[in-house]
Amino acid sequence: GLLTGLAYLTRVAALPLLAAVPVFFFLRKRSRLSVYFFALTVPMAASWHLWGYIHADHGVKSPYLHEFMQWVQFGGFGMHLMTQISTLSAAVANDFFPRMTELLHGIPLHYLVLAAAIAGGIRMGKRQHWPLAVIFTGVYLIMILCWWFHGMDRLMAPVLPILLVGIAEEGSHFAGLCAHSIKNANLKKAPRWALMAVALGLVIRDEAAMWQKAGREYAMGREHRKTDEQAYAWISAHVKPGTVLLAWKDTVSYLYTGVPSSHDMFVAAIPQSEDVNYKPTWFLPPGEFNSGSLLLLDSDFAEGYTFLLDSFRRRMESMSGASLEYTAPG
């Protein structure tokens, strides 16, 4: 309970533990332990939300649930869920085999990778009497299906090892079925050895692909940093006292500029997708600030999404009283 509480205070990604642990105790026929678990966990989590509620007028980031409900209100839950299932399948496939979706050219075979991970996880869970890691993975996947923005790849990190084990488990089961259908005793181990060779090849290929990706993102990050620092320097020199900076990376913006920054206000002001008719909301905490400046950077967008920058900028310029004060060269 204490470790779960600390994990939740560190990252909201630990939220599924609050459901997974009681299920684990129930399956172990030790449900009474859930009382002690919640006695330690709930006060720690509740104290954080209480503090955030009390300081809501001071630019404290709102809970993800609030942002998610705003997103569903504009986009619809059913369509959102279908989109996220497709995104999750692509994320698992690309983590297992980099650029798989690109190589498939639109053929939806990447769903098979997620199906294999789930089927293998269930098979492993039944055999090992449902360890906590497997239960957590299931609940966690349900949670990230409700995620409201891009970035599914990074959200896979906490459960990727279990998903890979699930894929390996299903691969082993498939090899066993193949071996059962082979009459020649000398060839019965051939399917398993073949899958092991494929797995080794994937490891070598993935290692090379990850180094290439890391190098590309590092170079891109250095280029973005040069442009970002120009914007930060202008803000430091020209923004007037009493101004709050609406920024996606509020902590980085504050570190470089010294100007109070808010991610929460940025989310309220910027539409998270062009697919929904989102009306930007501009608000300032009463008594805190007398003006606001919104910061849009190329580095705010994931790779392949920077084309949205000009569109979002035009939306903000169309708001009453808004004006463009600075744009980086180029």
Task: Tell me what you see in this structure.
- The protein has 330 residues and is mainly alpha-helical.
- Helix content is 63%, strand content 4%.
- It has a three-stranded parallel sheet.
- Helix 12 links the parallel strand 1 (243-247) and strand 2.
- The radius of gyration is 24 Å and the shape is globular.
- 18% of the residues are buried.
Could you spell the SSE succession in H and E letters?
A: HHHHHHHHHHHEHEHEH
The N- and C-terminal alpha carbons lie at a distance of 52 Å
Structural class: mainly alpha
Average the pLDDT over all residues and give the rounded result.
80
What would the keywords be for this entry?
330 residues; mainly alpha; three-stranded parallel β-sheet; globular
